[in-house]
Each structure stands twice: as structure tokens, then as C-alpha cells.
Amino acid sequence: MAVTLWIIVTLTFVLMITIPGSPLNEERGTNEVVQANLEAHYNLDEPYYIQYLLYLKSIVTLDFGPSIKQPTETVNDLLSRGFPVSFELGMVTILVAVISGILLGILAALRHNGIIDYLAMSIAVLGISIPNFVLATIFIQSFAVYLGILPAATWASPRHMILPVVALATGPMAIIARLTRSTMIEVLTQDYIKMARAKGLSPWKIVVKHALKNSLMPVVTIMGTLLAGILTGTFVIEKIYAIPGMGKYFIESINQRDYPVIMGTTVFYSAFLIFTLFLVDIAYGILDPRIKMHKKGGE
Amino acid sequence: MKLADESKTYSPADVPDDWFKWKEKDNEAAEAVSRPSLSYWQDAWKRLRKNKIAMAGLIFLILLGIMAVIGPMLSPFSVREQNLPNQFQPPNGTHWFGTDSLGRDVFTRTWYGARISLFVGLMAALIDFFVGVIYGGISGYKGGRTDNIMMRIIEILYGLPYLLVVILLLVVLGPSLTTIILALTITGWVGMARIVRGQVLQIKNYEFVLASKSFGTKTKRIIRKNLLPNTMGPIIVQMTLTVPTAIFAEAFLSFLGLGIQTPFASWGVMANDSLGAILSGKWWTLFFPAFFISFTMFAFNVLGDGLQDALDPKLRK
Known about the structure:
Chain B: One of its GO terms (cellular component) is plasma membrane. The complex is a heterodimer of chains A (299) and B (317). Chain A is mainly alpha-helical and 299 residues long. Helices cover 74% and strands 0% of the residues of chain A. Chain A has helices at 2-18, 32-41, 48-60, 75-110, 115-129, 132-146, 158-188, 191-198, 203-215, 217-240, 246-255, 259-287. Chain B is mainly α. Chain B contains 12 helices and no strands.
């Protein structure tokens, strides 16, 4: 975990100093003394290794310094303003995707090769195939412009959340539904399910109490990948729906070569992602008692 | 010949020999082949052909490939040519898919975008294939410490959020087609390497590899001739599933303004350009690129699923 983070941090730094152009290069030439002073202010005149150490220090102390392009704001300001919005969008999306995906998968598995199965899987394949930005624009076009029943953009009330969340959740939902279906079909053929059925349990109870836990393992396994996808998906969705989240600052900072902001957001994103991957691993260990995080004793 | 009395229980000693008779062994019948022998690939092809959706996907992709080559030549308009008085023409006789905000012909740009998308997808899959197969093959075959170190490297790469790396690379190297492909493959081969390693690890313990080794075959030849052909199934499936991911990533990056730059056309660029126009009802500017991105990804996905079923040796009848 720490190694991965360190690699990202270093990689970001190396890439950053190799980018041609500096944040202080304005179209109008600045006075040389002013330029030198500015560079000194942001430590851009130090040798690279000093910059690197300063940069590591800023990460360890979680203080990314001021933004170069908007000097009145620090990177931490931007993060603390943008992150809650992006986090809310991401969390609601994950909840929607997981719940609807699992439900769809179970329904399809229970009616294996029936109409519901084909319907659910058609939705799933479509969900995987249509990119989220296309879906988002189609939603705006139909629900906001044509029907006029939902707001087209921004982030103010739960009603504003519907379109972006559905657009972002469809892809992960489709993947979860397909996985749940295939493992559920397999689990349902096993002996202990037959036993439960013989006891006279209702199909719903069998699924919820007995089959679900075992068929969720693959879903947990790919949660990490899905999280990363949703995270990057928020860039696009935030752009289309004009949501004031972190994605906006990230893309802007890249286009403006605003080093502190690029580094801050990249490191923050990566750390967040790596941390959630770690949580997924732990959840995996709790759900499946056969997996132990570390070898215990000599069994 | 006296028949056995079913109500009685016989002990083996009581059973007279003439109750049994020798059946002539028919060598020819035993050797006869009851159905035409099919190679692995013929068999897989036969099964794939029965999967209607996968075949529809395959046919769509073939047609798309043909149109990507000849499409731009079919129309008198060029990709970049702007014609402002002609902007936002709905689909008609001259402009089959209409024109966009700068009066450019959407038909030409759509097929040009198909070229870009297919090229990015196929190149990404090919590079992933070469790097992943070599890396995974060595790692799985050598085993032990080499494998351990190589897998640690993969684990670290796997933890990198790949689109962040891609975006950073694009910023440094500047947006171009080569950069996109490079950026996509720099972390993309990891999945392929994992699959190949897993397969090789399993197959290298089979007897036919041992036999080959005992003849003194060189490692390189064993990997190439014995191991790889037997891992081709999962590799091909992985490649078909890499293509839509790469196509999506290209469209995604172009959409964010980090990929192919206007005036050149890619489906992502076209979708991005049409964002403003769609609100005022110019549906065709978004419809055609969006339709083709979605359908191409759909086709590759169903083809991949079909291949997965067709190439699975366990399902062979």
C-alpha cells in the first residue's frame, strides 16, 4: 500500500517536472526580477531533489500549499470544497449500482432462461456498451430538455442527483448484474440449496439467507476496479452536469499547469483509491472465512 | 443350454462355463471414427457460429472495418473542411448524416472516427498481447523467485489508478494518437500477463511438457510450441475484451479534451463537440458518433462472450 502510493507520488513528480511549460509563463513577459521572485516563492528555483523533498514533506504533513493560478486559495481549500461533492456523487452511485445490480442479477438467475433473464441481461449488455458520457447527454436531452421533468445540471437537491447518478451507475450496475447472475446460477445448483428447498423454504428466503452470501464473492472482488471506474467517471459526469466537484479542479489544473493542484489532487485521488482497495480486501476476508490475510501458525 | 433360475442365488463355483461366450474382438470397429475429427479451432468455430448474437457482433465489426477503410472515400467532403454557411444541416441527400456546428460532414467524420477507434483498440490489444504474453509466460514458466518478483511488480502496477496515469502521461507527452496508445498499454498489459501466467503455471506441470523437456527441448521452444497454443483460448477472449476498453478510454479522453484534437475526428471528439448543439435539438451531431461507439463496444463485448463459451475446452462435446 505505502509502496504503491510512493510510486504514484514519485511518478507524479517526475511527470510534472518534465511537462514543458511552467505555470508562471504568461503570454506577456514578466519583469525578470519579478519572475525570479515568483519562482523563489513557489520554490521552483531550487534543484529538483530539493523540490522533491519539499514535495514529499508537503504530502506527509498533508499541506499542499497554495494554488499557483488562484493565489488566494490553497490546494487544501479546493480539496475540502470539491471532495464532499464528488464523494457524495460517488457514494450514492455505488449504492445505487450495487443494490440494483444485485437485484437484477438475482431476478435473472431465478428465472434462468426466462423472459426476465433475457430482459435483464439485455439491459446489462447495453449498460456495459454505452459510455457514461453518451448516456449522460441522452438523459439531459430527454428528461431535462424534452420532457422537462428533471433539472439539467448543477448539484443542489436530491432531484438534481437523479440524472448524474443514474448515468454514472449504469455501467457498474450492468457488470454487477452479470456477475451476480452467473455465480447465482451456479450456487443455486448446489446440494445445500437443494436441501433448503427440501426443507420447504420459500425461494426468496433461500436466496437471501443461503445463496446470496456465496454468490457475492466475485462482486466484492471486482469492487476495486469498479470504484476506480466510478472515480474517473466522475470527471466526465461533473463536466457534463456542471457539478462543482474535484474532477473539475483536476482537469482545470492540468490544463493550466498548476503544479500544486495537480499533485494534490492526483495524490489525494490515488490515496483514496488505494485506501478503498484496502478496505475491499478486508471486507473480502470477513465475508469469506477461508481467506486469511496473513498466514497464522504453520497449518 | 440351461438358463439361470432367477429365484436362486448362485455362488461363482456353481456357474457353468457355457453361460458365457467369447465375443470376437472387432479391431476395425474399435478404431472407427464415428464423427469427423475436428481440430480445436474448427470445433470452436462451429460453436461460435451457433451463437447468433456473437455472429451478429462479428458481422457488424467486419462491416465497420470495411466502412472505416472506404467510408471517407465515399463522400466528396473531407474530415477537416469547414463550411460555415452550411452548419447544422439535418441528414439529407448531400450530407447523409447531416453537418455539425462548423458545417463539417458528419458522415465522413463518423467513418474517420471509426478508423481511429478501431486502430486504437486493435493496437492496444496487440501490444497488450505481446508484452503480456512474454511477461506472463516467463513469470509462470520460471516460477519460484523470478515469478515472485515479477508478480510483485505487477501488483504495484495493478494498484495504480490507470486513468490517472494515462491523463498525466497525456499531459506530459501532449495529446496525440501515439500517446493515447502508449498511455493505454502502459498499464493495460498487466491483466493479460496475469492470465497467461495462471495458464502457464497450470499447463507446465502436464505430462506432455515433461516429455518435451526430457527430449532436451529448449525453454524458448517449449513456451512457444507447447505452452502458448494451449493458452490461446483465454488470451483471445482477453484481447476481444481489451478492444472495447481501449475504444472507450480513447472516446473518454477525447471527450475530456485530452485525446485526439479537433479538427481531426474521433467519436469522443464528435460527442464532445455536439454537447452544446444537442440542447437545441441537433440530435444527429451526437446520435451518429454515440450510436457507433455504443454498437462497436456492444459488438466486441458479445463477440468476447461468445468466444469465451466457444473456446472453453470444458464445454467441448
